[in-house]
Structures are given as C-alpha cells and as structure tokens.
Amino acid sequence: MNGNDRQSDPASPGDSAVLADAEADIGDGEARLDLDQAFDSGTLYALRAAVQAHAIQAGLPENRTDDLVIAVHELAANAVRHGAGAGRLRMWERDGALHCEVSDSGSPASGIQAGPGGNMTERWPFLQGHGLWLVRLVADQISVFSGPGDTRATVVFFLSGQDPSVSAPD
C-alpha cells in the first residue's frame, strides 16, 4: 500500500471500477471463479485454509498470501458479527489480480449511510482497531457496497505486486 493522497489512493478505485468488478461475468472466459464458499462463525478456519490454498495455486507470493488471508478473515468476521451471522466468499483471478468478494444479507450495524451508488469506501470507519482499517492496509484495492438487502466487500491483490493496468516507466 502506498502513502498517496486520497484522490489517487488505489484502495479507493471509484464506483465504475468497483461496479465492474462486483458485476463481473465470471463465466465469460476473462475470469474464472476459483472459490465460492459459504461461511459462518464455525467455518471461518476452513475459509482461511481454502483462501490460502487458492492464493498459493494462483501464484500470489507467500507474504501477500498471508495478507490476503488476513483481509478475507476480517471481512468474513465482520459479516458474521455485524451482518446476518453468515456470508459467502467468491474468489476469482482476472487481469493479473485475485479478487475476493465477501457478501452477507445483513446491513452494517454502524448505521453509516452509503454514498452515491452505494459505495461505502469513503464513509466506512477505517480507524485503527477496526477490521476494515487492517484490510485497507494490506489490500491493493478495497471497496464496500451496502444496500437494503446486502453488503459486499471486495478486495483485490495484484499477483505481481503491482497494478497490471499501470505501465512501467520508460
């Protein structure tokens, strides 16, 4: 994670990038759904093991695999504690990155209102001691969307360690 200002922060990719990710057609050949797993408080350990195995298989470096497991665990634990008590993880590889979407059918207990288009990235509390603060530190990108029927948090980890859409300087 770099220390850039908010406007160029890759952890805040903007509504269009996040919506494209959240609405990706996993079956279109551009992306492959690697993991689709339901979870609850009793299966978080199994979720962590599955995420780690899939990240290693995809070629994510070991230290980044640990970061991904931490991020997914924090998001899933939030879904269990503050959401419906259970949720779903979808994990796929696309465009040189691993994408992990954690969703639940509950709404955030904090009562924070979403911004335009449901994007909560700017308004969710990223304070020290909060799970989302930790997720934001380790993920290359994060987005949180909440609507009346569900909350979806998506993290992205670049397989090469850098955003593949940014070309290297000449």
Structural overview:
- With 170 residues, the protein is of the alpha+beta class.
- It has one domain: Histidine kinase-like ATPase, C-terminal domain (Heat Shock Protein 90, 2-Layer Sandwich), CATH 3.30.565.10.
- The protein contains 4 helices and 5 strands, in the order H-E-H-H-E-E-H-E-E.
- The protein has helices at residues 15-22, 44-58, 62-82, 131-138, and strands spanning 32-40, 86-94, 97-104, 141-146, 151-158.
- It has a 5-stranded antiparallel β-sheet, sandwiched between helices.
- The longest helix is centred in the middle third of the chain and has 21 residues, at 62-82.
- The protein is globular, with a radius of gyration of 15 Å.
Keywords:
170 residues, alpha+beta, Heat Shock Protein 90, 4 helices, 31% helix, globular, disordered N terminus
The total tally of domains equals 1
CATH superfamily: Histidine kinase-like ATPase, C-terminal domain
Count of alpha and pi helical runs? 4
Mean pLDDT, to the nearest integer, reads 74
CATH class assignment: Alpha Beta
Our Rg estimate from Cα atoms comes to 15 Å
> What is the terminal-to-terminal distance?
23 Å
General form:
globular
> What percentage of residues falls in helices of 4 or more residues?
25-40%
Which fold name is given in CATH as the topology? Heat Shock Protein 90
